[in-house]
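testing teh design pipeline on a random one, pls ignore if ur not involved
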């Protein structure tokens, strides 16, 4: 600590702070190889990517067919960063030998036009495009590269009165 600086421990102890999920976790409950979180909001698929070579600029430009994808990926990235900062140690590892198992559940608002007898969400968006958006959102934040994901479990459903739309995600590091 630089000279002339001091820390008032009593003042720090007296400050109130809002308890987060990790504050209630005991050491026995903490698993350094697992991270779980929820991203609120209607899930958005990755969309198709198109690349164009622009001769005047002498470079390739890529575009996405879904304009909302970037905002959804940013929400995922923000939640991933937030939950990672609350951990005693960062989840991210540069070790390229590690594999990851990712479980995702996408919860959607059931459209009013959907018959009540329909229990499964068999409508668009496609599950694989939802997964791609999530993997892009967590890459370089929780995992170094989405090629290290060796197992994926994913599902989509309609939320009931007690389930908000969004993404429930769990990532497990595998050695």
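output:
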């Amino acid at each position: 600590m630089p000279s002339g600086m001091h820390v008032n421990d009593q003042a720090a102890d007296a400050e109130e702070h809002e308890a987060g999920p990790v504050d209630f976790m005991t050491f026995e409950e903490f698993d350094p190889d697992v991270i779980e979180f929820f991203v609120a909001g209607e899930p958005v698929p990755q969309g198709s990517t198109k690349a164009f070579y622009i001769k005047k600029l002498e470079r390739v430009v890529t575009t996405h067919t879904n304009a909302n994808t970037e905002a959804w990926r940013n929400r995922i990235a923000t939640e991933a960063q937030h939950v990672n900062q609350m951990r005693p140690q960062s989840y991210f590892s540069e070790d390229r030998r590690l594999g990851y198992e990712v479980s995702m559940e996408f919860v959607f608002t059931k459209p009013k036009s959907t018959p009540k007898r329909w229990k499964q969400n068999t409508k668009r968006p496609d599950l694989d495009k939802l997964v791609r958006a999530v993997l892009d959102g967590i890459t370089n934040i929780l995992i170094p590269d989405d090629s290290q994901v060796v197992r994926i479990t994913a599902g989509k459903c309609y939320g009931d009165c007690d389930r908000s739309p969004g993404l429930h995600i769990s990532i497990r590091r595998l050695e």
